Amino acid sequence: MGYDADDASCVSTGGFVPGVFSIPSLPKPPRLALVRGPAWPLVEEAQKNCLYETAETLRRAGARVHEIAL
User: Fold this and answer.
1) Which sign does the torsion angle of CA 66, 56, 17, 10 carry?
2) Which of 28, 40, 67, 68 is 20 to 30 Å from 48 by CA-CA measure?
3) Are 32 and 61 a contacting pair, CB within 8 Å?
4) Which of 13, 18, 68, 20 is nearest to 40 (CA)?
5) Which residues lie below 8 Å from residue 40, measured CB to CB, with a gap of 6+?
6) Is 64 within 8 Å of 31 (Cβ atoms)?
7) Cβ-contact 70, 37 below 8 angstroms
8) pLDDT at residue number 23
9) CA distance between the termini of the chain
10) 15-67, pLDDT tens digit by residue?
């Protein structure tokens, strides 16, 4: 994340620098939706596992993650 000299659409050298930022405390935990659409049965198991692992990491960090099937 950050400036990429090989990307013609990248116009700034500013932005995210790993380890050089702080995240302020939030007044309440974020609420997120994990949405499974009609194509969910076509998703590969590795992709599903990655999504569920990410959701669990967010839960452990304090986010409220709700699973929704469309």
Assistant:
1) negative
2) 28
3) no
4) 68
5) 69
6) yes
7) yes
8) 62
9) 32
10) 555 555 566 777 888 999 999 999 999 999 999 999 999 999 999 989 999 99
Distance CA 2, CA 5 (A): 10
Cβ atoms of 33 and 1 within 8 Å: the answer is no
Q: In this structure, what token pair is assigned to residue 47? A: 């992709």
CA–CA dist 4, 53 (Å, integer) = 29
Q: Is the pLDDT of residue 8 over 80?
A: no
The length of the chain, given as a count of residues: 70
Radius of gyration over every alpha carbon of the chain, rounded to an integer in angstroms: 17
Is the pTM higher than 0.70? no
